[in-house]
């Protein structure tokens, strides 16, 4: 009798999301929803697995893949897949999938929320109330900056960037974008105008980073880029921490080269509570929650399972990112 394929899932996911795999495979999950699977356990599971369902925080490197002789697919629960060594997967004939589209609007919402929170000092103001330090109404108490009518510069105009551009037009913002390739369709749809990076940095009141992390984009925001920005401008990052030279950002904030930042992502996650970026009141920080709504995370988990089911049945899923 043929052995039933084995699927290992690196976090506990709701049972309802596993449905696509139920008749097809033996499934086991790491017993925690909010703690990463220890490397040793992952390696051990990979030795047997036909498929692994991973989170964007799980490093899937060459060494892990080499120790996984039966592995046919790595299904990442996220649109980003910079945690996976694609070249190694390619060489070993392993399919890598992601979960695009279904998280676009949710992540665009969060990105725009982070922009608004940064401009209007929402977390700082909330902390003032909670700490008991709100003594009286003041004409400039917690005064932030307007968003409507300002210029937003979106770096990385993919699906999420387009979603942010649509939201920005609803706030009567002037929308600039920079991307590897020009997006005429998006320009028509959103009214966004293409700009070279230098111009975008110089003219934007909000620079929003949504480009994927690749060899090309790694550390693309250094002190030099922040210095090109207006002193009144905010830097918002909802993509990956690896796009930013964090020391350069700290220096730009110290030197008041920019007005503040909104960060959903960091170079090292979870970020160390003693990290200098966390010491600035004008930096709004979030724990990488771009796509984190119950509805979207369930859809992502289901799609990640469906991607595996396709491969196990011998089909090619739509969301393959390599090969
Ligand atoms: C993604 O999908 O890549 C997100 O960063 C996860 O929230």
From TrEMBL:
GO terms for molecular function: glyoxylate reductase (NADPH) activity; hydroxypyruvate reductase [NAD(P)H] activity; NAD binding. Residues 112-290 form the D-isomer specific 2-hydroxyacid dehydrogenase NAD-binding domain. It comes from the Bacteria. Residues 7-322 form the D-isomer specific 2-hydroxyacid dehydrogenase catalytic domain. InterPro entries: D-isomer_2-hydroxyacid_DH, D-isomer_2_OHA_DH_cat_dom, D-isomer_DH_CS, D-isomer_DH_CS1, D-isomer_DH_NAD-bd, NAD(P)-bd_dom_sf. Keywords: Oxidoreductase. One of its GO terms (cellular component) is cytosol. Transmembrane segments: none annotated. This is D-glycerate dehydrogenase. It comes from Alteribacter lacisalsi.
């Amino acid at each position: 009798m043929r052995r039933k394929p084995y699927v290992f899932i690196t976090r506990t996911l709701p049972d309802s999301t596993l449905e696509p795999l139920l008749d097809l495979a033996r499934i086991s999950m790491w017993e925690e929803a909010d703690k990463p699977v220890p490397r040793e356990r992952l390696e051990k599971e990979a030795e047997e697995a036909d498929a692994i369902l991973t989170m964007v925080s799980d490093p899937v490197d060459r060494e892990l893949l080499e120790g996984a002789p039966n592995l046919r697919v790595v299904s990442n629960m996220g649109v980003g897949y910079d945690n996976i060594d694609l070249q190694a997967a390619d060489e070993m004939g392993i399919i890598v999938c992601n979960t695009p589209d279904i998280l676009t609007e949710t992540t665009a919402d969060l990105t725009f929320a982070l922009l608004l929170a940064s401009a209007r000092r929402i977390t700082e103001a909330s902390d003032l109330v909670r700490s008991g330090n709100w003594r009286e109404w003041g004409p400039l108490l917690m005064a932030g900056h307007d968003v409507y009518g300002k210029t937003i510069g979106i770096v990385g105009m993919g699906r999420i960037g387009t979603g942010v551009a649509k939201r920005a037009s609803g706030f009567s913002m002037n929308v600039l974008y920079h991307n590897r390739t020009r997006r005429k369709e998006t320009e028509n749809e959103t009214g966004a105008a293409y700009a070279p990076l230098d111009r975008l940095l110089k003219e934007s009141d909000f620079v929003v980073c949504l480009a994927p992390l690749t060899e090309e984009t790694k550390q693309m925001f250094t002190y030099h880029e922040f210095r090109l920005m207006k002193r009144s401008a905010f830097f918002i990052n909802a993509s990956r921490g690896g796009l930013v030279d964090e020391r350069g950002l700290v220096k730009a904030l110290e030197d008041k080269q920019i007005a503040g930042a909104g960060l959903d992502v960091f170079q090292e996650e979870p970020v160390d509570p003693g990290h200098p970026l966390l010491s600035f009141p004008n930096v709004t920080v979030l724990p990488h929650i771009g796509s984190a709504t119950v509805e979207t995370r369930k859809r992502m988990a289901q799609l990640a399972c469906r991607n595996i089911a396709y491969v196990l049945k011998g089909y090619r899923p739509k969301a393959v990112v390599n090969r």
